[in-house]
Amino acid sequence: GAGVSQSPRYKVAKRGQDVALRCDPISGHVSLFWYQQALGQGPEFLTYFQNEAQLDKSGLPSDRFFAERPEGSVSTLKIQRTQQEDSAVYLCASSLETSRSEAFFGQGTRLTVV
Amino acid sequence: AQKITQTQPGMFVQEKEAVTLDCTYDTSDQSYGLFWYKQPSSGEMIFLIYQGSYDEQNATEGRYSLNFQKARKSANLVISASQLGDSAMYFCAMRKNPGNEKLTFGTGTRLTIIP
User: Which of A10, B82, B111, B113 is least enclosed by beta carbons within 10 angstroms?
Assistant: First the structure.
């Protein structure tokens, strides 16, 4: 596709429910990032993939958060037993593997936990 | 650790005027990159401009320019001849170079262009 695609755009989950957020990066982009953006804040890093390898997951807030990119393209961010503090916009970004390359972002998934 | 500070939560500017959005940063890295992104109400982060820490000239992209003052650790965004479509949130971000590291973002500035 022309840009980074994320689905769903909006997700309402009941507290305790599991959710899965999908990211389809730009074709050929080696690097893929997930960020969490709380209301009124800047995005905060969650995790980073280079192809299928998850090289950095230091930003995942708890072991309820899990991300995968099994074939080095599409990635899924899974949140188990959702809690109200998980409500945020989840942004996915992809980029080429060069130091001067900018990250291209998707429109995000707005997760609301009720 | 890297830190980005944006001290202007909101700004109002008359259409066609120039506007400067402030950004200061802190890092112990010698090589790093500085970015500005625009986030309209649709939610997507749109890349505007990039400045490498070793770039000797200030970056420019159309109406956007980056006023990079390395000694002061500042990377202000200047938008010339502002347009109504420039109304959005603007985020300053940085990452370590080389390679593809995570971005560290500031808290953003909400820019509103007044007709």
Answer: A10
- A42 to B108: CB separation less than 8 angstroms, yes or no: yes
Q: Do B4 and A42 touch (CB under 8 A)?
A: yes
* Residue whose pair of structure tokens reads 């560290």 in the numeric block: B104
For B100, the closest of A31, A91, A108 (CB atoms) is A31
Extract the tokens encoding A82: 């959702």
Phi, psi of A84 (to 5 degrees): -60, -35
Share of chain A above pLDDT 90, in %: 89
First to last CA, chain A: 33
- Report CB contact under 8 Å: A45, B103: yes
CA-CA distance, A2 to B33, in Å (whole number)? Answer: 25
Question: Could you tell me if A68 and A81 are in contact, meaning their C-beta atoms sit under 8 angstroms apart?
Answer: no
- pLDDT per position as a tens digit, B47-97: 999 999 998 899 999 999 999 999 999 999 999 999 999 999 999 999 988
Instruction: Please check whether residue B107 is in contact with residue A42, taking contact to mean a CB–CB distance below 8 angstroms.
Output: yes
Letter for the amino acid at B32? Answer: Y
Give B48→chain A minimum CA distance, Å.
Answer: 9
Q: Is B34 on the interface with A (CB under 8 A)?
A: no
Which single residue is written with the structure tokens 């022309």? Answer: A2
